């Protein structure tokens, strides 16, 4: 808090110096006021009334006005004001309704001058006339405002606020006779001091009490800047006031009144419990709201900042202990914030009427602070000027402050930008009325379809076959899908899996012929480079990277250890045996389907054996209206067809764990390695895909291979993959695929996902009462409840119904019906709503 | 490959946050003008504002969507020291006919005494929880015990960070092996405040969040922090927006090796650090697979970062905020000026990167 910076501001002859500092008071302060020499400040509270000298480094207590042995309620101050013309004259408002004036020029210790005991209740505010030496105004909780002439013993005139409590009174700076008063019912009244019978004007400013007001001080500066001058109705007034203050002599320091003003000089700022500060133009016939600032707590004090025509300072009486300085043109974000106080700030005052950098404040935390504007924290500076979010399909939403986006290219040159200069157009924004107002440009960068957006994910998920066919077919199918989508590495992986796990005799000869005959793009000699090319982008799952590869990195040497595993695997396949290698390359075109017809027929007969085990699934009779799955197959399913060929291939020399796959693979392959041999590699591969963010591949392979690899990956990891993939699928609204994955998973935690909350509570469409028992017949009216309202047949399959009237029917029928009518097809008159 | 679609947001002050929903079809924006707007994507890809309402009495810093399983629910946080939870009301009304939807406030979380700088819903598997952080350095974690009742939130944890917090991120991993974890960034600018990123982890035994790690190397104010979507990875990736973009990996050390019950130990590596924005980086955001990071900075550009097969992160594209194209590839020597085309050239990203050296 103790910042050592010091500021000197020259104001004509005198100069203000100081720093951000604070001093402890003995008691909470209720109000503060500054002497016109800007070197002293008076602090008043329930049990404090002191004058402090503001020195460069500290506050120095100068005078304690609270004298006398027994404390008097007259000294319990709600407000204090120091006369701006007379350094010796102070007035306080007491909580017991007394208005006291103080004359510092009195030689005695007790400086009390006059005592006015006219108000019945707490006086909330006292205010000296800005130019008249002896005129004092008070506003009280009892609903009255009183004007005192300090040369008389009692009030000159009383103004009635119609029984509403007065929270603030302020003499106008513009108009000699005018003052404003604010009320607890939200009204603001403008009075002519010569006419105590009724107010000149009244308007509702706030919702709830108006705690404070402040006139714009522009003409204190003396210069009428920039505004078109207008002649005031002035002149005859002084005599009138003198009639009020009949016996008094002419005031010694009467200043010539300015007779022209800018439009701003009729501005009145008001603050209320509704957390708003409103700026009113009262120079016109009707008070017009020109600005509205939204603060975060009720506004207890408002003070225009000197020399900054759009700035005002506010503080709150509860919740918020900070002082804010607002630029009324940017009504949502404070320009500056002072957070020194630990309890509610009760009084704020700018130290000098022509100096914008020093603000004094008193608080309930018993401190008096001087704030330097340049030490203030600036929420605007800390506020984040940009928002950025990655969308599902790779699109990006980006909102940025316009000045950042539209900045000239040379503003902050960076290496990249200098090399490629950027050209922008600054679009003038007609909605930007002030320079100070900030706005943001919002745009969404969308991926063009098919250009590497996430659509590959959805396509892959939908087209992959995960079960229901022989392993070889699944692998081939999935490889084809991957290749179609341009994901060569993934396709390669599927093909490899097929080779590893399926009997090599399944299709080798035909596929060899096939690939040679077609002269497919990759000949055998290119084998290595082809593999490498596919490997290179492999780390990313994004296919768009793949396309640029072919020409650039066929000779890249792979060093990365994680990639080496796969490379070895590739090489092993390709070097180990020509036949599967060719097959690997040839498996591109659709003709494969024909080739497989042979096998497919053969496979069809055995298909039940390929069904993945479903023992993880409890019966679902009550959910699906179909007979339970073929459980009788489950026993067989545990030993799938391929295991047969695995078994006879299992004659193998013991494997040395440290041998190089690459060097000996030829021999090994020839002697038909058991698929178990690869399972460690395959598991590593699955982990590799998962670590690279392609959990789709990991889960798909896991499901397709089933028992072959499952045991080698710990349950927790599998579950993690499953939940991640299911979450992704649901993001893309691929509910069917997601459910299929749930069904095919063997992890108990996953497979129970679609067992939860499967109950639907429906009403009978005839009697409209809840169906209690399961089945199709309502217990109460003994009629079939699931009749289609359109075709009057019993619905089997997709049944859609309105939750309002319980009528429904075949999905197709209802959809068709609703195209023509929004009423219920059953004729019940209900306006059905389907979502 | 990107097409910029400019949207007239019509916010009256700065937009501080943009957020897509779970399915990427809705978008929420929040602004200093104290309002939140919800945008829905139409069939032809246009974004339409379907709701705009005043949410707070101060700048709204962040807005975030809950998982749709809990309904159409938004949370916002503000300078006015509160966070709020909003729910969209369905039903026939005039609003609906005009294409407008209606959002109601379900709760206001008023525990903070200072500006609430971030709010994030926890990953779905943890239930309906949200975390807020505030400028006085406290992270608060709330839970709605009944997911059907969005107006009941109980304050479960208060974590003191000792530093003014600016951003939080939940670890999205759904693995049982990863206990709930939250990373907190601070934009405290006082010179004696050192490490600006702290990571807290839930301890099953004490049922409290305890500090697991502090990233000592991040000493500049942090504006945004984001865990990458986990998707089955065994380790975590954390992106940090400070005066530059940084990417860290956190590999949990095997539980058996650490003393049981204590916080998980992590092997932390910085895998990338880019100062291409030349100034403050304000936002980082991951794509859904956690493979591409987007960052935005004071230069008004969005830059995309992606790892190549060497785990070597490179810039793969630059997007200018006002929609004008910028050629990507400022990193590599082989410049490929294609000004005028609307394509930040993503394919160049790996060209010439074969001499891969690791950032560290």
TrEMBL record, chain A:
Coiled coil start-end: none
Sorted UniProt keywords: Metal-binding, Repeat, WD repeat, Zinc, Zinc-finger
A molecular-function term among this protein's GO annotations: zinc ion binding
GO annotations of cellular component type: cytosol; GATOR2 complex; vacuolar membrane
Region (Disordered): 562-582, 624-648
Domain of life, source organism: Eukaryota
Repeat positions for WD: 116-158, 258-290
rRNA processing in keyword set: no
Similarity-based family: Belongs to the WD repeat WDR24 family.
Role played: Catalytic component of the GATOR2 complex, a multiprotein complex that acts as an activator of the amino acid-sensing branch of the mTORC1 signaling pathway. The GATOR2 complex indirectly activates mTORC1 through the inhibition of the GATOR1 subcomplex. GATOR2 probably acts as an E3 ubiquitin-protein ligase toward GATOR1. In the presence of abundant amino acids, the GATOR2 complex mediates ubiquitination of the NPRL2 core component of the GATOR1 complex, leading to GATOR1 inactivation. In the absence of amino acids, GATOR2 is inhibited, activating the GATOR1 complex.
Full protein name: GATOR2 complex protein WDR24
Organism: Suricata suricatta
UniProtKB/TrEMBL annotation, chain B:
The UniProt record lists the keyword Transport: yes
Any single biological process term in GO: cell division
Domain of life (superkingdom): Eukaryota
InterPro entries the UniProt entry points to: Sec13/Seh1_fam (IPR037363), WD40/YVTN_repeat-like_dom_sf (IPR015943), WD40_PAC1 (IPR020472), WD40_repeat_dom_sf (IPR036322), WD40_rpt (IPR001680)
GO cellular component, one term: kinetochore
Chief location bin: nucleus
Subunit: Component of the Nup107-160 subcomplex of the nuclear pore complex (NPC). The Nup107-160 subcomplex includes NUP160, NUP133, NUP107, NUP98, NUP85, NUP43, NUP37, SEH1 and SEC13. The SEH1 subunit appears to be only weakly associated with the Nup107-160 subcomplex. Component of the GATOR2 subcomplex, composed of MIOS, SEC13, SEH1L, WDR24 and WDR59. The GATOR2 complex interacts with CASTOR1 and CASTOR2; the interaction is negatively regulated by arginine. The GATOR2 complex interacts with SESN1, SESN2 and SESN3; the interaction is negatively regulated by amino acids.
Family: Belongs to the WD repeat SEC13 family.
The protein, known as: Nucleoporin SEH1
Record organism: Suricata suricatta
Taxonomy of the source species: Eukaryota, Metazoa, Chordata, Craniata, Vertebrata
């Amino acid at each position: 808090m103790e910042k050592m910076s010091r500021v000197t501001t020259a104001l004509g002859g005198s100069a203000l110096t100081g720093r951000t500092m604070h001093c402890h008071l003995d008691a909470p302060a209720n109000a503060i006021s500054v002497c016109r020499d800007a070197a002293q400040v008076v602090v008043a509270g329930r049990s404090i009334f002191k004058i402090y000298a503001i020195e460069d480094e500290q506050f120095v207590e100068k005078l304690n006005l609270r004298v006398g042995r027994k404390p008097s309620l007259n000294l319990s101050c709600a407000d204090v004001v120091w006369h701006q013309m007379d350094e010796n004259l102070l007035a306080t408002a007491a909580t017991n309704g007394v208005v006291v004036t103080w004359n510092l020029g009195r030689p005695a210790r007790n400086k009390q001058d006059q005592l006015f005991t006219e108000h019945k209740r707490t006086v909330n505010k006292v205010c000296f006339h800005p130019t008249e030496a002896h005129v004092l105004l008070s506003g009280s909780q009892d609903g009255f405002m009183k004007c005192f002439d300090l040369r008389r013993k009692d009030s000159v005139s009383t103004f009635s606020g119609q029984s509403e409590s007065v929270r603030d009174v302020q003499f106008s700076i513009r108009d000699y006779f005018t003052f404003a008063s604010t009320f607890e019912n939200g009204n603001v009244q403008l009075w002519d001091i010569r006419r105590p019978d009724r107010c000149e004007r009244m308007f509702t400013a706030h919702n709830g009490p108006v705690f404070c007001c402040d006139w714009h001080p522009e003409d204190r500066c003396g210069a009428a800047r920039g505004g078109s001058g207008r002649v005031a109705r002035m002149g005859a007034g002084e005599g009138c006031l003198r009639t009020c203050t009949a016996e008094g002599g002419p005031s010694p320091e009467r200043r010539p009144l300015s007779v022209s003003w800018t439009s701003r000089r009729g501005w009145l700022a008001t603050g209320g419990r509704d957390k708003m500060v409103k700026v009113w133009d009262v120079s016109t016939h009707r008070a017009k709201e020109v600005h509205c600032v939204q603060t975060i707590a009720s506004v207890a004090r408002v003070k225009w900042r000197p020399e900054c025509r759009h700035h005002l300072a506010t503080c709150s009486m509860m919740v918020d202990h900070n002082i804010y300085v607002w630029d009324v043109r940017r009504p949502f974000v404070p320009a500056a914030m002072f957070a020194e106080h630990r309890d509610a700030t009760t009084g704020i005052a700018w130290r000098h009427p022509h100096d914008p950098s020093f603000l004094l404040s008193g608080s309930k935390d018993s401190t008096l602070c001087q704030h330097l504007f340049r030490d203030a924290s600036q929420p605007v500076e800390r506020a984040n000027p940009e928002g950025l979010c990655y969308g599902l399909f790779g699109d990006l939403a980006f909102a940025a402050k316009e000045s950042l986006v539209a900045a000239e290219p040379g503003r902050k040159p960076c290496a990249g930008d200098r090399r490629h200069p950027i050209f922008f157009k600054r679009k003038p924004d007609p909605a930007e009325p002030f320079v100070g107002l900030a706005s943001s440009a919002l745009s969404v960068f969308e991926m063009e379809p098919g250009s590497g957006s996430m659509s590959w994910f959805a396509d892959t998920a939908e087209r992959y076959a995960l079960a229901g066919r022989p392993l070889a077919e699944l692998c081939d199918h999935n490889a084809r899908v991957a290749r179609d989508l341009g994901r060569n590495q993934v396709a390669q992986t599927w093909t490899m899996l097929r080779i590893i796990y399926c009997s090599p005799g399944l299709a080798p000869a035909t596929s060899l012929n096939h690939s040679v005959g077609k002269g497919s793009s990759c000949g055998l000699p290119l084998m290595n480079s082809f593999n490498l090319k596919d490997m290179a982008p492999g780390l990313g799952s994004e296919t768009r990277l793949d396309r640029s590869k072919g020409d650039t990195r066929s000779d890249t040497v792979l060093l990365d250890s994680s990639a080496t595993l796969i490379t070895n695997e590739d090489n092993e396949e390709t070097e180990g045996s020509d036949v599967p290698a060719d097959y690997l390359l040839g498996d591109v075109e659709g003709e494969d389907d024909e080739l497989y017809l042979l096998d497919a027929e053969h496979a069809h007969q055995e298909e039940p054996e390929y069904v993945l085990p479903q023992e993880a699934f409890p019966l679902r009779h009550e959910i699906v209206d179909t007979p339970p799955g073929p459980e009788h197959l489950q026993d067989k399913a545990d030993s799938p067809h391929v295991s047969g060929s695995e078994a006879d291939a299992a004659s193998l020399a013991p494997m040395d764990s440290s041998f190089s796959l690459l060097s000996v693979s030829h021999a090994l392959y020839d002697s038909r390695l058991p698929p178990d041999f690869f399972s460690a590699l395959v598991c590593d591969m699955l982990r590799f895909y998962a670590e690279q963010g392609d959990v789709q591949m990991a889960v798909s392979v896991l499901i397709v291979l089933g028992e072959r690899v499952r045991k080698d990956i710990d349950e927790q990891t599998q579950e993690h993959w499953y939940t991640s993939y299911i979450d992704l699928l649901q993001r893309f609204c691929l509910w069917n695929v997601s459910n299929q994955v749930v069904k095919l998973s063997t992890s108990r935690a996953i497979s129970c996902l679609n067992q939860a909350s499967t109950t639907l509570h429906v009403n009978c469409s005839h009697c409209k009462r809840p169906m209690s028992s399961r089945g199709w017949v309502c217990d109460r009216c003994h009629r079939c409840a699931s009749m289609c309202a359109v075709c009057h047949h019993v619905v089997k399959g997709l049944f859609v119904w309105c939750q309002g009237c319980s009528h429904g029917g075949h999905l197709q029928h209802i959809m068709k019906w609703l195209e023509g009518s929004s009423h219920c097809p059953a004729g019940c008159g209900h306006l059905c709503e389907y979502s | 490959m990107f097409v910029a679609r400019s949207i007239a947001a019509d916010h009256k002050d700065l937009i501080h946050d943009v957020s897509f929903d779970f399915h990427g079809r809705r978008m929420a924006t929040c602004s200093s003008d104290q309002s939140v707007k919800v945008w829905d994507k139409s069939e032809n890809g246009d974004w339409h504002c379907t709701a705009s309402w005043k949410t707070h009495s101060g700048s709204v810093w962040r807005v975030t969507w809950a998982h749709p399983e809990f309904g159409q629910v938004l949370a916002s946080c503000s300078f006015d020291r509160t966070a709020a939870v909003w729910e969209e009301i369905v039903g026939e009304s005039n609003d609906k006919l005009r294409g407008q939807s209606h959002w109601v406030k379900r709760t206001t979380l008023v525990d903070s005494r200072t500006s609430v700088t971030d709010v994030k819903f926890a990953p779905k598997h943890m239930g309906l929880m949200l975390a807020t952080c505030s400028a006085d350095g406290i992270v608060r974690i709330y839970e709605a015990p009944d997911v059907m009742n969005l107006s009941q939130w109980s304050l479960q944890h208060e974590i003191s960070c000792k530093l003014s917090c600016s951003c939080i991120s939940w670890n999205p991993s759904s693995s049982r092996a990863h206990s709930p974890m939250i990373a907190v960034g601070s934009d405290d600018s006082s010179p004696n405040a050192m490490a600006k990123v702290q990571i807290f982890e839930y301890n099953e035994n004490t049922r409290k969040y305890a500090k697991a790690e502090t990233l000592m190397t991040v000493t500049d104010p942090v504006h945004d922090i984001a865990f990458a979507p986990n998707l089955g990875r065994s380790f975590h990736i954390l992106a940090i927006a400070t005066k530059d973009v940084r990417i860290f990996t956190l590999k949990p050390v095997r539980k058996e090796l650490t003393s049981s019950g204590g916080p998980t130990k992590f092997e932390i590596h910085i895998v990338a650090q880019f100062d291409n924005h030349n100034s403050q980086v304000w936002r980082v955001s991951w794509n859904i697979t956690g493979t591409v990071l987007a960052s935005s900075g004071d230069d008004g550009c969005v830059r995309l970062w992606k790892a190549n097969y060497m785990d070597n992160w490179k810039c793969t594209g630059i997007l200018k905020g006002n929609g004008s194209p910028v050629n990507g590839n400022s990193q590599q020597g082989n410049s490929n000026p294609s000004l005028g085309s609307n394509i930040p050239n993503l394919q160049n990203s790996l060209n010439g990167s074969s001499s891969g050296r690791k950032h560290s």
